[in-house]
Every structure is written in structure tokens, then in C-alpha cells.
Amino acid sequence: MKNRKYIFIFFILIITAMQIYTGRALSLNVKLSVDQRKLVDSFGYPNVFMKAMGDDGCLESWTYFKHEITYDFLNGKFLKDRQQKRFPKNFRWPKLKPTQFKKGMSEKEVEKILRNKPTSWGILKPEAAKGVKIYDYCDQVKVAFEKGRLIYVQTLPVPIDIKAAEKKQGGKK
């Protein structure tokens, strides 16, 4: 009986280590608020999102293209919704969730989630945002860091290269 207990603990440790290594550990995910949970239960996670994290809290915008609507939250509490125009079908968006990002994450932690290095970056010069670094990941994800810690993330749709796809398939059908 004692051996079963140790085997069980060993497997839990192995599973936890694998989750941490792949970035899928529950502890890395931010919990959803009641309002956000209702939305995810109804529509799933948003196609694209914006998350601005500051000392006063977290402002989020979640967009669902199929439903042509964006929902805004402040500290997880629903603020308002906004209608969006229908989105063209020849776009794609990253398979990311707002819960994967939390205030204060390091650049390495964000790179691990995105599984990529930034394609471009810059440093803001205005006095209000002096020293804030902004990174772009293939025009689909924008992140900002202040003193090496995450303060902003935004995912964006990008057009699918229709002509390249048609050429690969041998032209239009």
C-alpha cells in the first residue's frame, strides 16, 4: 500500500513537470472572472484580444468575429460590448488565450508561450512611457514590457496569402 502512494506521487510530479515544461501548467494561466467564464462557456475563447495591465488593474477587449462583437472588461468585470463589422474569411488569428498572459511575466516567459522570437521591436521615447519596449511577433501579436515585465498584449488577425495558397494548389479551382 505504501508503494502505491509513492508511485502516485511520482506520477503527479512527472505530469506537473511536463505541464510546466510545455507551458500548459494551470498555475501559469490566469483565472477567468465570473463574467468572462460565462462568455467562454457560451462562445469559447475570443478570436483576438487586447490586454492592458497597469497599477490600476487590467483592461481587456475580446473580439468574436463570428458574432461580430467585442466585449470589454475592467479587472474581469464586464463593461460594455461593441458591434464589429463582419470580418473577411481570408484572415487567420493566433491560437492564443487571454488567460495565458499575466501582468509581470518576463520576456522569456512570453517567448515560451509564443514559441518564437520577435520579428521587430522598439522602445518608446515619450516621457509618459519612457523605456517601454514593444515587440511584434509576425504582425499577429504585439506585446509591451516595462522594466522587463509584461504590461500589454494584443493579438491581431492577419490576411491569409490567397495567391500563394492558390499557387501551391495549382491555381484556382
Percentage of residues in helical conformation: 25-40%
The profile of the biggest β sheet is: 8 strands, antiparallel
The tally of domains stands at 2
Proportion in β-strands: 25-35%
Unreliably modeled segments: 16-28, 168-173
Strand order in space, largest sheet: 4-3-2-1-9-8-7-6
What is the number of E strands?
Answer: 10
Q: What separation lies between the terminal Cα atoms?
A: 65 Å
Number of helices: 4
Instruction: Give the overall form.
Output: globular
Cα-atom radius of gyration:
20 Å
Which structural class matches the secondary elements? Answer: alpha+beta
Mean pLDDT: 79
- Helix and strand element order: HHEEEEEHEEEEEH
Q: What can you see in these coordinates?
A:
By secondary structure, this protein is of the alpha+beta class. The protein folds into two domains: 1-28; 31-168, no CATH class. 27% of the residues lie in helices and 31% in strands. It is built from four helices and ten strands, in the order ααβββββαβββββα. It has helices spanning 2-22, 34-43, 107-114, 162-168; strands spanning 48-54, 57-64, 69-74, 77-83, 91-92, 120-123, 133-137, 141-146, 149-155, 158-159. The strands form two sheets. An eight-stranded antiparallel β-sheet has the order 4-3-2-1-9-8-7-6, covered by helices on one side. Strands 5-10 form a two-stranded antiparallel sheet. Strand 8 (141-146) and strand 9 form a beta hairpin. The longest helix has 21 residues, at 2-22. The radius of gyration is 20 Å and the shape is globular. The protein starts with a helix and ends in a 5-residue tail after the last helix. Residues 16-28 and 168-173 have low confidence and may be disordered.
